[in-house]
Amino acid sequence: MRLSRILAMAWENMTQRKLRTSLTTLGVVIGITAIISLASLGEGFRLGVKERMEQGFELNVLIVIPGSFTSGLGSFTPQDVANIRENVTGVEIVTPIITLPQAKLNNTQTNEGLNAITVGAVNFSEMSQIFPDRFIPLTGELPSQEENDTVVLGFRTCYLNDVTPVVNVGENVTLQIDDSVPINKTLQVAAILNKGGTSGITNFDYWAFIPLNAVPAPINEKYNIILVKVSDPEKSEQIAKDIENTFENPYSISILVPIAFMRQVDRILNFVQLFLMAIASISLLVAGIGIMNIMTVSVMERTREIGILKAIGAKSRTVLGMFLAEAVLIGIIGGLIGMFTGYGVSYGLAYVLSSFMQPQQQQDTIFRTPETHGMNINPVFSPEWTITAFVFAIIVCIIFGLYPARKAAKLNPVEALRYE
Amino acid sequence: MKALLEAHDIKKAYRMGKLLVPALRGVSFEAKEGEFLTIFGPSGSGKSTLLHLIGGLDRPDEGEIIIDGFNILEMSGDKLAELRLTKIGFVFQFFNLLPRLTALRNVELPLTIAGVPEKEAMERAKEMLTLVGLETRINHKPTELSGGEQQRVAIARALINNPKIVLADEPTGNLDTKTGWEIVQLMKKLNEEKGQTFIVVTHDPHIAETADRIIHIKDGLIEAIKEAPRGNKP
Fold this sequence. Notes:
The complex is a heterodimer.
Chain A: H1 3-16, H2 18-56, E1 61-66, H3 78-87, E2 91-100, E3 103-107, E4 118-122, H4 124-130, E5 137-140, E6 150-153, H5 155-158, E7 172-177, E8 183-193, E9 198-199, E10 202-203, E11 207-211, E12 225-230, H6 236-245, E13 253-256, H7 258-301, H8 303-311, H9 316-356, H10 383-409, H11 413-418
Parallel strand pairs in A: 4-11, 6-8
Antiparallel strand pairs in A: 1-12, 1-13, 2-4, 2-12, 3-7, 5-8, 6-11, 7-8, 9-10
Helix pairs in contact in A: 1-9, 2-7, 2-9, 2-10, 7-8, 7-10, 9-10
Chain B: E1 3-16, E2 19-32, E3 36-40, H1 47-54, E4 62-67, E5 70-71, H2 77-87, E6 88-91, H3 103-114, H4 118-131, H5 147-159, E7 165-169, H6 177-194, E8 197-202, H7 205-208, E9 213-218, E10 221-227
Parallel strand pairs in B: 3-8, 3-9, 6-7, 7-8
Antiparallel strand pairs in B: 1-2, 1-4, 4-5, 9-10
Helix pairs in contact in B: 3-4, 3-5, 4-5, 5-6
């Protein structure tokens, strides 16, 4: 018997029992819809999270810290910086930072206090190259390195109330540090930075930056942080290893590799997505059992018909083919409809979820996201997943259709004809 | 005339619960090409079983059945199906048409199974329905046809593949006397025109006597094989 006729007969049979066929197909539709929408939303969610994290972390900036968080911090020397610069490949910029603790900044004229959490001595031009998106002056200009009596203020250090700054560009501030190496300096405000938000572990909005030469000896050669900008973030781990190897004792330093963190999160999200898919697949299996159930009933109902077909010369495999064709057609139709509803449901769910994640009134804490926009989830449809889901639907239909179809094919014609 | 069908010492028993009930206890006969045979006997005599066996629908426990040179005991299920498709046509007491197909589609069915192109199948089915006098009813479904008409459709279906043998199991058993008689006349006519062998199972002596030969069967054994008393003229 020709395949086209087998399919045509199967189709006729299905259309004769419209309600039953629709309900059976609905099971497959739901299964495919669940798989496709969860896959695309999961992928969209993952990209959303990734995007958020890329905003929060400069993935191409490694943060090198002397010592470790747990066993106390030391400091780096200019030689350490030079070693990294010269001996590690894939490194674009290496810049040291000296952080000055216990610093007090006041407007020299009004004596009003600035809200600087940290005062960092940096190389301005290198910093602006490392953080091109953050190190942007709101007013004023970044000073060249030679000056040693200027200061660049993070947005929040002087804009306490968003409207009027405590100090303006061109005015002076007094820096006072009562530490083992006391500093008391008057500095001119060269620039106030735009809102930049948190980078990795800190929020530059609360930092005041002074030139490295403004730091007196002997602490001017004791760097607390080295920032390393790499050309390819994907190679971060290797570069971090190379950086470690420029030190006599590689374990004496710690390196924050943002992309490693990202990768870990990505792995977790991957796992979550697979888990969701597994749950969605269960719905398809349930649909498969539905198909098996309906087809078994159908075989019983059509026992006599099967007997007639066999009596007039249909081979077992023809009968098998006729019933399997029904299962496959249900799979194909259910799969196709499920693809479309899956797309629709994805967009619907994405819309609902996104509206839950609209920006909230943020508290003015130190750690906060750079931009307070909401998180948008856009479903991502990969052709691979779509095709996989579709093929999976058909395979499930074949597997669950096989038992009833075989049952039909194996019927003894004489007994089948006698069946009432 | 050579023997188209040979049955040698066929035995068949059915299991009913724990009991093994013998249906045929050693039946031998042959049918010649173009012959119109009736198998006559009371119900339960094993005549339907015999028909199923010589039609390749079932296999005997013992004995040998040869249809047009093929020994059905040596054939696989698929080969038997092919034999039924190409050499045998069945007519049943309860017509056994597919209820959701039209008369035309029912008659086409064996051709469809044989893989004959749709257009050709339709032409041949129309011809065959005309031959059995149903040219105006081809698009009716079985439920819209009378018993006699349904049996004509069934006969058309049995003949569509030009089988060597047509096997009819109580073809008049579900029809009134007049209609039943018309069906027998139709089969006789087709037997004469097309020269196909007809084997008709019946418990109606009146119908049995229309045959060239009558095989009397009782309790699973052949009692007698009689030549037509009326010289093959109905």
